[in-house]
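We modelled the chain as a single entity of 353 amino acids. Its sequence is:
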Amino acid sequence: MRRLSISSMVVTATATALCVAPKTWSQSAQDDWTPPRTPWGDPDLQGIYNYATVTPLERPVELGEQVVFDEEEAAVLEEEMAYAMDQDRRDGGNEADVARNYNNLWTDTSRTQLTEDNRTSLIVDPPNGRLPPRVEHPMTPERAAAAREAELSLKRFTLGFHESYHDADVGNRCIIRRRNEGGGHPYLPALYANTAQIFQSPGYVVIYAEMIHNARIISVDGRPPLPDSVETWLGSPRGRWEGDTLVIETTNFLKADDIGRTGVVYRNADPETFRIVERFRRTGPETLEYEVTMSDPNTWTQPFTIRVPWNETDGQIYEYQCQEWNYDLYFWLSGAREREARGEVFDPDAELD
């Protein structure tokens, strides 16, 4: 049996709100099930869902063309991940203990479980289960200068020498979750906050995630997309029904800086050419299949598709208390000025961990 290193399997992302465990349903309930409809005749997708899983976004290189784990591999991996993700452990010394400041109360236990089919990656296309190569662009003097300033801004933030609020990105400032790190499209597992609620009314579908209070209002009435000149944080979505599948195409994302600290496009794609197509389809009494295809000819050499199971929960979505009038920014800025008053100096060449 092939044994995988734990570090190669961890799916990293930023956490934002509490989650609850998915429901479980018998096989007979699945077999006797008929997809429900709304009173006005659309497929009924409504509910609160958990999309946590330990299945990695990309297939580990050492697995080659292996698409699924066998039962023994899956059992060993889930056991290893349950141990690795135990935030209440006290081994490893003080540094490890501090790194576990988000203890098990905050984490989503569903993230220790593989997808039901034991896939080796959430990426289902390309067939190798990995992100396609990025497109290389020449580094012009203008881009080099912008990238250097963005790097310095990030370094000032990390080292505690903020010059202004611009050194804190949109997520730190509680405006919106940056780069869709959980709670936004694409919906991918995070440490916690792996929940979304779907509402429906005639002509509309709403997907709500408590990730800095993110509600996507999607029309399904055939209206045209917004003009290219109109940009929004989460893009302009347009939905349609293809049989029992909800298809959502989203474009018109707000532009970001060179390292994505001011935008929410996935992995710092080009907002002008980034396009995301999502598909939601009921697969059982309390399950959805979520499939998303992302394309951007200025960022990746080809489109890629991710598939994530959604499981309905018995619980609720809890508020993520984040707003622009939190005190963090005040303390960041006043702390930096206090350090300067003591004679400390920002080192632009410092190495970050």
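As a brief sanity check on the tokenised model: The beta strands are 47-50, 123-125, 195-201, 204-209, 214-219, 236-242, 245-251, 275-284, 287-295, 304-312. The chain is about 15% helix and 20% strand.
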